Amino acid sequence: MRLGLIGLGRIGAFHADTLTHLEQVDSLVVTDAVPAVTAAVAQRFGAEAADSPEALIRSGVDGIVIAAATDAHTALIRAGVDAGIPVFCEKPLSGVPGEARAVADHVNASGVAVQIGYPRRFDAGYAAARQAAAAGELGWVHTVRSTTLDPAPPPRGYIAVSGGIFRDCSVHDFDTVRWITGREPVEVYATGTARGPGVDDFFAELGDVATAQTLITFDDGATGVVSNTRYNPRGHDVRLELHGTRDSVAAGWSDQTPLRNLEPGSTWPTGDPWTFFMDRLAGAFVAELTAFTEVVAGRLASPCTVDDALAVTWMAEAATRSLHEHRPVSIEEVRL
User: Fold this and answer.
1) 62 and 166 share a domain?
2) Does the model's pTM come out above 0.85?
3) 21 touches 288 (CB < 8 A)
4) Are residues 85 and 141 located together in one domain of the fold?
5) Cα 293 to Cα 122: distance, rounded to the nearest angstrom
6) Total domains present in the chain
């Protein structure tokens, strides 16, 4: 099949590499807002260069992968859907909740398949945990814990436009706990601190926090616990725990888990810690884009729909409001 890739920054170039190695992809068309970047990536991966998203869409692609900046997502999703072409788009639907709702409604009315990028759904350990929960192996899952600890914060300029830690980082955990449990969140309570090591202490100035904890109450009474920080110098830590009335399971624990174990006599973990999300989730990204080729071929329904992404949007909005107002916030308060 012939796929198009829009946006060739860090994640876009990474996707170009992945797509060119998928046996399902016969040819790749790429474009970026910077023509020199388009030319360089096209040459590097043997792809066809298009001078604009519009030209790429007209070039006869079977599916579109969007890795452009967040503020371009809604327009590009609409353009792909209006052309009748299946779309994969990195999270989020939009940085503006009202726009996210509008584009979700547009997609649902169109009947064109759209898959939103939440790669942890395709991590082997996470998928096994979901299967165990869905099969009833754990009994009633009363607690789910999801962790994302970054080694260091992004640049100040990125933080200034990211929308805050809950909209930028925690959303991966929010999607995880909702997807893993199969339950809908009803209330969120979030807290955090802007304190850092003294060299990047701009979070408070930007109305953000560097470390956050979120408690989520689900519609069956279960609790989700989400932990995030921009400062985990040992490495990039992405983990999950599920605790039920019959059993407990975990994902993300390996010899590369970035923890120093102080248990006497224990030698685990013995490997080099993960340091970057693209390394930690490399297999998940391949599985995610492979699934999209199945969506394009019509053999698979979208494994992460616009409605899933919209649910995460409401969770992030509730967490952000909770942080600033120092109180629990119901999902209904923020849902548009």
Assistant:
1) no
2) yes
3) no
4) no
5) 14
6) 2
DSSP state of 293: H
- Residue-wise pLDDT tens digits, 234-269: 999 999 999 999 999 999 999 999 999 999 999 999
The CATH number of the domain where 86 resides is what?
A: 3.40.50.720
Domain boundary among 81, 112, 143: 112
Q: What pLDDT does 196 receive?
A: 84
CATH number of the domain where residue 186 is located = 3.30.360.10
Tokens of 255: 């010899």
| pLDDT value for 158 | 87
| CA dist 174 → 154, 252, 285 (Å) | 20, 16, 18
Q: What is the pLDDT of residue 323?
A: 98
Asked if 167 and 25 sit in the same domain, the reply is: no
H or E element: which one contains 13? helix 10-20
Quick check: is 216 in a domain? yes
Q: Quickly state the pLDDT bin for 197 (edges 50, 70, 90).
A: confident
Q: Cα(105)–Cα(280) distance, rounded to whole angstroms?
A: 34
Alpha carbon distances (Å) from 218 to 146, 221, 319: 15, 5, 14
Which pLDDT does position 199 carry in this prediction? 66
Between the alpha carbon of residue 224 and those of residues 126, 176, 185, 214, 303, the distances in Å are: 15, 10, 9, 8, 22
Q: Is the peptide bond before 269 cis (omega within 30 degrees of 0)?
A: yes
Residue 306 has pLDDT above 90, yes or no: yes
Provide the CA 177 distance to its chain's centre, in angstroms. 12
